[in-house]
Amino acid sequence: MGRRALPKIDPTLDLSRHLLTLTELEPPFVASRWFGREAPLEIEVGSGKGLFLTAAAANDPTHNFVGVEIGAKYARFAASRLARRGLNNACMISGDALRFMREFIANDSVAAVHVYFPDPWWKKRHRKRRVMNEGLVADVQRCLVPGGRLHFWTDVEEYFQVTLELLASATRLSGPHPVSERPAEHDLDYRTHFERRMRMHGLPVYRAEFIKPPAGTEPSAATGPFATHAASTNAINANRTNANSSDTNSTGTGAGNPS
Ligand SMILES: C[S@@+](CC[C@H](N)C(=O)[O-])C[C@H]1O[C@@H](n2cnc3c(N)ncnc32)[C@H](O)[C@@H]1O
User: Fold this and answer.
1) Within a domain: residue 56?
2) Which H helix or E strand runs over 120?
């Protein structure tokens, strides 16, 4: 499944409140200063065309949302959606989300991190390019407030499994907590464009949530090394949403942006 051209952005649209460029920012990123108010902060890694960010910001005006997207055209397009809707509780950052999390975000300051359908980088020698790596999961754990959540969805079973194992071995986050699927009520009633694409093709989606425990508490049993396999398998079974497809070989998003 390849890329399609992005729709044109209205050149008169003012993106100054909705689009920042990472290379032009100085750390730290203080969300309350940018948004002009204190509110729980949610960060999305790899926003693509911005369906999640736009819907989430519209549905929860009490939270601030930041999407980080490395594809400059996609970051701009997602920002244009926010601007068109006048969503002043959300902005896009054009740049590398891994760097943003590592260098710009303070400890215990983020209510939720969202990672939806990250590029799978199929070839073994390219796997080190995956965003769900040791560095990012350490930063997610460091940046989340106690009780904060990591949301991770993918269509690639192997990536899902490997990430659950990484989270279990390298973090104290509790999980995987299962996430149920609900029927879409309209054409854009999906978490992201990639979720829409997968479900419309009858392909499986694997979903899990993780929670940062309060300081000084032990991780839940599900994150212990012994429980990892069973927990992961349960999560896969609980979250695999394609009831009728036998094709699990060609379900990957491939590197690139959503069309
Ligand atoms: C397969 S697409 C999924 C987009 C969107 N999350 C969705 O589900 O529709 C993955 C996106 O992550 C972006 N991406 C990849 N590496 C990134 C990084 N290090 N920082 C920010 N974005 C990244 C890609 O440019 C692409 O838009």
Assistant:
1) yes
2) none
Please return the burial class of 36, using the count of CB atoms within 10 Å of its CB with bins 0-12, 13-18 and 19+. exposed
CATH number at residue 192: 3.40.50.150
Any atom of ligand 1 within 6 Å of the Cβ of 98: yes
pLDDT tens for 23-49 read: 999 999 999 999 999 999 999 999 999
Residue 105 lies in a domain: yes
The neighbouring-strand residues paired with 90 are: 65
Tell me how many domains the chain contains: 1
- The reply to whether 60 belongs to the active site is no
Structural domain boundaries, residue 100: 19-239
- The per-residue pLDDT for range 158-173, each reduced to its tens digit, is 999 999 999 999 999 9
Catalytic residue among 14, 119, 139, 155: 119
CB-ligand 1 contact for 116 (6 Å cutoff): yes
For 173-182, the pLDDT digits (tens) are 999 999 999 8
Note the pTM of the prediction, 2 decimals.
Answer: 0.87
CA 159 to chain centre: 14
The reply to whether ligand 1 has any atom less than 6 angstroms from the CB of 44 is no
